Amino acid sequence: MTGYAAASAELDSGSLTLELRAVNSRYLDLQFRMPDELRVFEGAMREAISAQLQRGKVECRVNYAARSAQSGAALNRDLLLQLAAWNKEVQDALPEARTLSVADVLRWNGVLETPTASADELRTALLDLLQETLQEFSASRAREGEKLKDFLLQRVEKIESLREGVIPHVPAAIAAYEQKLIARLREAMQNAEDERIRQEITLFASKIDVDEELSRLASHLTEMRRILTQGGAVGKRLDFLMQELNREANTLGSKSVDAEVSRSAMEMKILIEQMREQIQNLE
């Protein structure tokens, strides 16, 4: 299922930002974009994401901005004293030499010390931030899931309506065939027997009998409603039901001898395909 969430956290040593983006995929595919110094935590992050998500191509992007020297920095007093000693030593040896200015001292590498986080601090902060982001991510997916649920239930109702519309057409098709068969046999055989006619009609009726297909369609649609109402991780179960619905619609179309039944079977297949595409969005 598609989704997006982002969160940030402020540490003494810098700021962390984390984004989760997901697009449709039948399976869970995780990709990480993060600084090399945080790569050591990828395994723990992968485990945390896999515990909550089952489907989707998910990109996890992490940025870490360390504090600048001007923010929260402290003077390295040992180095400062060393610079003062060097400055005096140079002045004694070379009286004409320019003395170090405050700006020169502050630009000296290592004079300003910025806070650094330990590996444990970074790990804890990163995993806490990931959990916060996952909560928002799951909430956004849940909101989208409700919209998709309505979309799917609308298609289920349309298929059910088509199924009910097919039911009276089968007896009508048999009755029409019976009249044609009687007329043709009696025209070809002046003494056509009623038993022969009944046999032909029975054979025809068995070929176009779709009671089982219509019954299984009703069962699958009922199961879809139950799964969607129940909620939770439903994507894989609905994938299976799409295969079953498509199989019944195909059989219904292949057995059809009535234009209206053929049209209904085609409409069903279109609706099933629409549902199949959207079910890729469900967890």
TrEMBL record:
Chain coiled-coil ranges? 175-202
Q: What sequence ranges are listed for the domain Endoribonuclease YicC-like C-terminal?
A: 170-283
What parts of the sequence cross the membrane? none
* Entry keyword annotation includes Hydrolase: yes
Q: Which cofactor does it need?
A: a divalent metal cation
Keywords attached to this Swiss-Prot or TrEMBL record, sorted alphabetically, are:
Coiled coil, Endonuclease, Hydrolase, Nuclease
Pfam families in the record: YicC-like_C, YicC-like_N
Q: Which residues form the Endoribonuclease YicC-like N-terminal domain?
A: 1-149
Q: Name one GO molecular function term.
A: hydrolase activity
Matching NCBIfam families, A to Z?
A: YicC/YloC family endoribonuclease
Full protein name: YicC family protein
- Which organism does this sequence originate in? Ferrigenium kumadai
Q: What is the lineage of its organism?
A: Bacteria, Pseudomonadati, Pseudomonadota, Betaproteobacteria, Nitrosomonadales
